[in-house]
Amino acid sequence: MKCKNKLGLIPISTLLFFVALSMGTGVFATDQDSILESKTQQLLKELRRVGIPNSSVGISVIIIPSTIYPFEPVRYGFNSKKKFNPASTVKLFTSFYALTVLGSSYRFKTDFFKMGKRYLDSFDGNFYLKGHGDPKLVYEDIQEIGHAMRAMGYRKLRGNFIVDDSYFSEPATNAASFDGKKNKPYNVGPSAALVNFKAVELTVAKVKRKINISLKPQLADFTVVNNMRWVTGSCGKNKILYKESKGQLKVYGRFGTRCKRQRLYLSLSTHKRFAFSLFKQAWIDSGGQFDQVLVDGVVPKEAELVYSWTSPRNLGLLIKDINTLSNNTMARTMFLNLSASKGNPGTLEKSRRLLSNWSHDLGIGPEDLTIDNGSGLSRVTKLTPTHINTLLFEAAFSKEFQVWKNSLALAGKEGTTANRFRGMDVSGNAWLKTGSLDNVQAYAGYVLTETKRWISFAILVNHRVAERAKLPLDKFVDSLYRDSGAQLLVEGSK
Fold first, then answer.
1. 3-state class (DSSP) for residue 232
2. 417: CB partners within 8 A, 6+ apart
3. pLDDT on residue 18
4. Residue 486 and residue 209: Cα distance in Å, rounded?
5. Helix, strand, or coil (residue 227)
6. Considering only 12-16, 221-225, 275-279, which range has the smallest mean pLDDT?
7. Which pLDDT value is given to residue 186?
8. Would you call 81 helix, strand, or coil by DSSP?
9. What is the C-alpha separation between 426 and 429, in angstroms, rounded?
10. Cα–Cα distance between 224 and 219 in angstroms, integer?
11. Would you call 330 exposed, middle or buried from its count of C-beta atoms within 10 A (0-12, 13-18, 19+)?
12. Which one of 48, 162, 301, 383 is least enclosed by Cβ atoms within 10 Å?
């Protein structure tokens, strides 16, 4: 048996949905509505108790049948068509559209070109790194690339090094524009030549009665100035501050005498400078000699391809990071890939238009979506719970559903939900995308109920004390799991 919907023709055997259907007697939509109404009212009551009014909450719930025809899903909503800031739940649109367009097996590449002269193991001229929007080109990859080129006989590089990021065409983002914290990794903007998320791990540690500071990975031509001082006490006495300026990171503050180690994650430098420094470091670490300087430019047509790197991670694994870990930089880079894959350069405007048109095919009016950068790190993005749940419902019948579902965080077990749902039955039985900003809490995803049927849902809370909504939202998702044998609809219900 096959099921056809807007997203394609797929074997029904691949679907995870189990439905108990009665032949002749069924439960009307109003009965289902009554159950969901009761659960919703309990949630609203608990939210009001912590200071969040009904007007600040939007909910959409769909009980999903095994086939769309002749059986219709049960839909329930509360403020479901009201627009809210969805925070990181907007990543669902970015990631699923990428999955639809590129496929789960797609792999990104990064190319290296040269223009110049080679003398035995030495090259003198222009060397190019050409990015194609890989959201997760990490330092270990750069090391492997360096080793591969060294194996080709290259040891000494002289001349100019060019990082070509023209696959995207967007001005550099101001990392401080969102919340003033320019060195926070979550504020790193997209780049077609993104390397290691433009971020490092800063470790401050006690080593033989001294305060030692290190960066991982190390950055060539980047110095760390240690101005830390001891204070008596534990790690609670620590106050680690830093200031970046012109290839230098000054680390200062205090470090408790009884503290062994503290780790911070920082974004440093510019995209091009960071990529250059990391490549240079990897080249030197491999035993090579690097005497090139960073200059601006793009790869000319006459340049010779030296090496082409294909990511070991397919798109399915990448969207797992985007959704489970809620990686903003990866999502923003993926968002620009949506339009670049249709004909580079990728731009925000083109990606927004493509996503809007695609959403219209799902039954979402293009005028209804307000999507900024595809990550949720935005104060202007606006969606309704119905928008999100329409996507979730349609995705449930996609041939990529298994990959898609598994990209979401398993409730209580991993990612952004790892420390939630303690002692709740739904732990391990829901796949969720969280969303969190100041004044925003959001949940969206799927629940496999105790009677083995599937429910998709989206909950958006926008309020100055939205942080207090976490436990009530967890309890609501748990209540969806505990459906206690409620029946599904028969043909003709709506």
1. coil
2. 409, 410, 411, 432, 434
3. 32
4. 65
5. strand
6. 12-16
7. 94
8. coil
9. 5
10. 10
11. buried
12. 301
d(CA 393, CA 63): 9
Instruction: Give the whole-angstrom CA distance, residue 403 versus residue 414.
Output: 16
Taking CA atoms, 456 is separated from 250, 264, 433, in Å, by 48, 36, 12
CATH architecture of 108-313: 3-Layer(bba) Sandwich (3.50)
Element (H, E) at 395: helix 385-395
Residue 71 confidence class, pLDDT cut points 50, 70, 90 = low
End-to-end CA separation in angstroms for the chain? 23
- H/E element holding 293? strand 289-295
Tokens in use for 224? 């760390």
183: which 2 tokens? 């060195």
How far is it, in rounded angstroms, from Cα 260 to Cα 422? 30
Provide the residue type at 21 as one letter.
L
Whether omega for the bond prior to residue 345 falls within 30 degrees of 0, making it cis, is: yes
Mean pLDDT of 317-321: 98
Closest alpha carbon to 381 in 390, 400, 368? 368
**Distance, CA of 336 to CA of 187 (rounded, Å):** 16
What is the four-CA torsion angle of 169, 174, 179, 184, rounded to 10 degrees? 90
* 108-313 shares the fold of 2-105+315-481: no
CA–CA gap between residue 142 and residue 150 (Å, rounded): 12
Helices (H), 270-380: 271-285, 315-324, 328-340, 348-361
Count CB atoms within 10 A of the CB of residue 142. 24
Beta bridge partners of residue 442, listed in sequence order: 435, 460
User: Minimal CA–CA distance to 130: which of 147, 148, 114?
Assistant: 114
Q: Which residue has the tokens 């912590």?
A: 50
pLDDT level of residue 21 (50, 70, 90 thresholds) = very low
Dihedral sign (CA 462, 463, 465, 468): negative
Look at residue 491 and tell me whether its pLDDT is greater than 60: no
Q: Which residues of 83-101 are buried (b: 16+ CB within 10 A; e: fewer)?
A: bbbbbbbbbbbbbbbbbbe
Asked if 188 and 321 touch (Cβ cutoff 8 Å), the reply is no
pTM assigned to the model: 0.90
What CATH number has the domain spanning 2-105+315-481? 3.40.710.10
Are 87 and 96 contacting, i.e. CB atoms less than 8 angstroms apart? no
Contact 65, 420 (CB under 8 A): no
Q: Rg of the chain over CA atoms, in angstroms?
A: 25
- Calculate the alpha carbon distances from 231 to 206, 225, 235, 238, 370 in Å: 12, 19, 10, 8, 50
Give the start-to-end residue ranges of the domains of the chain: 2-105+315-481, 108-313
Torsional sign, CA 444, 445, 446, 450: negative
SS3 state at 222: coil
Q: Which residue has the higher pLDDT, 26 or 8?
A: 8
Amino acid occupying residue 316: G
Place of tokens 């190019």: 128
